[in-house]
Amino acid sequence: MADTKAKEAKISVKVIVDKVNKRVVYAEADYTFVDILFSFMTLPLGTIVRLLEKHDDKKFEGLGSLKNLYQSPENCPECYLPTEECKYMLLNLRTLAYDHCRNLKLQIDNTEPLKYFQCDVCRKGYPIKSVFGTCTTTKCITYGKLVDKDVGFKKTDVCVSGGGVFVSDIGAFIVTDDLCVMPYTSANSIRLLTDHRITDQSCLEDIKLDMGCEEILHLLKMALSLDSVFTYLVFHRISSIRDLVVPSQRSDIVQTVLMKKDVSATHKMHLEVSLQKSIGKLLFAEARGDFIGFLFGNLSIPLGTVVGELMKGGVSSLTCINNIFKSISDMSVRRYLKSQDIKDILLKDLKIDRGLQKVKHSGMFIVTDDLIITPSSSYSTLCTLNNKKVSFDDVETYEISIGSIEGLKILNASLTSCSTLTDSLEHLLKK
Question: pTM score, two decimals?
Fold first, then answer.
């Protein structure tokens, strides 16, 4: 019942509009909206793809190659994955913050709570050591029977005392058009008005936005590509979305930075890549399970962790998401954020199931430029070339090795580009 109410609830945000220039200067919001904004940081990349892929917005296509990457585990034959449960977990991701987010006034993440199952024999209590599973299509490793009997175990709900889930309720907040969040003060308000060269109130107008789950998902989708989110929400009927996209958001220069711990500085993955010579774009790469496991593992990383890693090298291409991350980083603990633990969950939620990154290394896979993954075969290779209308004599192959720096480039490019391999690995090819 609580979940249903959270889906039907609405929250209100007051936006201050510059009528002359048709832009939003900033928004005023309480802790309920800021909680939801901050919760974006806790969503795994795969969950974001799942939530947004059904969101209707014909004028806007975001998330780069991540949509293809998310669909690949579902289409991957079971023989290439350690267990059926691995596929289930990849398609139903949860982080440490999942239980906290179930207390939000609006719950945009519709991932079902984790349930535990046993086979019929284990459920009756015959074995000395019971075996549990989270997916009803897997078989018990002891008795070989389907693990399909609900144990009925429920985790204790996270208790939220006073105020919001992540932030306190001691005052209002200002949220800028590019999603910088700060406490509301007269000084902050006047500074923003001055920065926008507004000298009097006559050109200003207050507009109330009532937002439910659909509107919040729309805002998330915009935040992943634009730097004027509220302006788009208010004026989208008369503004072209292309006019609001900042060209510089897509970075071509990636500095040296340590990748997340899953890919160490010494580990190298070996790929054979095929280049279409006439246009200089990579068609696909042939790779072993270690590279596929790395790509699948990216789906399980929370957005805040991704942005934090990319920002260390100054390479994150997501302006609004960067600003949310920086706002949390700069916000005082206890006065505004409820605790240091909450801050860490928002920015450093590294609970990633290592099983999600395991793919049988003996298998070979084809990875297209836009991250469609299929088992390697002559049929998949020929289909890729035929679909792109590429002749055999226009293809050149290279063997390359990639490590942490290239891994970071692939992660960054996958968020915005549909030519992820070309954008991230082209520099490794010997001309």
Answer: 0.82
